[in-house]
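chain below, 319 aa
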Amino acid sequence: MEKQEKVCIFAKNNKKGFIMAKYLDPKADLTFKKVFGEQKDLLQSFLNAVLPLKEGTEIESLEYLSPEMVPENPAKKYSIVDVRCTDNHNRQFIVEMQMYWTEDFLQRALFNTSKAYVRPLEKGEGYDEQRQVYCVSIINDIAFPNLKDEFYHRYVPANIEHPENTIKGFETIFLELPKFRPSNVSDKKMMVLWLRFLTEINEQTKEIPAEMMENEYISKAVGIVEQSAYTDAQRMAYDKFWDEIVSERTLMKGYFRQGHAEGHAQGRAEGRAEGIKEGIKEGIKEGITKTALNMKKEGLAVSLIAKMTGLSEEEINDL
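prediction:
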């Protein structure tokens, strides 16, 4: 008999009996912030899972930065949440969620990472005491279409001729959720579980795979995104967020279609104009050629025909 995957179905008791648990999408501003912006143990588990930390350098504890230490995000409209924290090794981490992507975000991520890295040195400190900075951007969109089978992208300052030689100090990591498949990752169970949590849990979810609920961190995160844990006001804010995202996506697609249509129409108009110009040019050339041929038949000298028509003697001899 084929092995069946175990599935956990959660229900809660009320006065009328049991009701099926319902969930909110963890990628929304409200839920993402509750999972990763308020629960240090969950953020610590997530960062240890997705960051390229060597064995023995895992995060043991972390502290969120106070609000006044978080710089203003110039594109906050497009960023769901921006979590900044520092661990007990003085490393700083920036975690943010993007709903859609433009090339400007690549530069913004680099700017934010650099800004976190550049800080005034304390008295007596040297440049060798600068802290390591990691920026993790989780993107619910396709950011690198040319890398079709890769969802994990790691950027560091590197030597062009010898990319294995890098400058330590900061790293920027992009995770493309639409490209993620559990088979994309090997020997990284926690990364798979966290990315499955972000990609598989939403308002249509009715059953949670057992392997996800057997993990204490994922189980806790699932509990946080249960609809019953939110007030009516929070649910309204959640729904408004998704309405704005849908509206923004619709506008962007509309602008793209409009730009494409205008560009296509302009191209056709330019093509017609160019065609007319080429047609006139070809017509003139054909008329000159016929005139030269008639002159040649009348016995005029080739040099004289060339002088009168502008054709070369070689062209006239070939007629």
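DSSP finds nine helices and ten strands in the chain. Confidence is low (pLDDT under 50) at residues 1-6, 13-19, 68-76.
thats it, cya
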